[in-house]
Each structure stands twice: as structure tokens, then as C-alpha cells.
Amino acid sequence: MSTPPISQRPSLRVGKVPGVTVSKWTGVWAERFPRVRLEVVDIDERNQRHALTGGEVDLCFVRLPIDEDGLHLIRLYEELPVAWVSKDHLVAAADEVTLADLADEDVLTEVTPHAIDLVSLGEAVLHVPQSVARSESRRDFVYRTITDAPDTTVGLAWLVDNPHELIEEFIGIVRGRTANSSRTAQARAGRGNSRG
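-> C-alpha cells emitted (196 positions)
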């Protein structure tokens, strides 16, 4: 039985944790595969592994650490750690801070409505990746780099045993392969070579 053209295959579901921007990759996908739906799903960081193992998404932009058992993982880039605070907080007056500067603060690491409320009241500081603070873009908050905190890493993960043919296509786009690369061209050949 012959393999159906890519345009007739199912859509691909890609998850992303907060702070990850995927527009540059989804834009390339839309150019290369205009008839193949790419669905982007927002995933809570606590559920990033379950989203993959439970079949909610085919691939996921994850934030390390993650249990890599049964997963393929490509590390993509590092994120700066920041202290995200109310504009009225003492930390907001500094250009950058250290972990010692935050020693007497109630430091939270998970962005929840309750955490946002506490930060808004000046009662807590959120220690998050810079991308998370940027993506929320609250006008009443500012963020300052934490100079001695470790960076976090964003990666792309997928199940080792997921046979979805379009996974390799998306990985190729993320890795910067051109439309004429050997892997991509071979996979796209199923769409037919007629030019009319």
C-alpha cells in the first residue's frame, strides 16, 4: 500500500511551555506545507512530559529538566533567569540582582494567579526565565536579571516510539534544514512531481 501524500496525512500537534515563541518555525511550516495543519498547544510546564506520553501533542517545546526516559530531546537555547517584581518593589530600583539580594524575599518559581497577586502586592518575587516575564508583558511589573542564578534550557522533545511521519519534517525546520535538503526532499516526494 503506497504512502499517501503529505497533504493527505493528519495534522501535527506541537506543544509549548510558557515563554516559548514558535512563530519563526510555524511560519516556515506554513510556507512548505500550506495544506497540512500545524496545531500549536499551550502546555503547563508541570504537564510537559505527560502531554507527550499521554498523546496530547506529537512534539513539545519543553523547559529542562525533564525525565528523558523514552524521549528524544534536542536542546535549543538557554534562557536568562530574572526576578519579576512589582514596579514599586525595592528590586525594581536595581539594574540587576543576585540570589543574596533576594534572600529575605518570598521567592516563587511558578506563575499562578495567586503568585501574580502576591507579586502585584509587593509581597513576593517571581524567579522565572526572562522569556516568561516578557511573554506576560504586564505594565505594572518589571524584571531584573539574576546574575548568579543558573540559566534554564529550552528543548524540543518527542516520544521515541511516535511513528508520525511529519515529526521529522518539523525537526528539520527547527534545525534549519532547507526545503531542498535530502531528508526533507525525500519526505516531500510523496506529494507528487507534476507541475501541470
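The longest strand covers residues 71-79.
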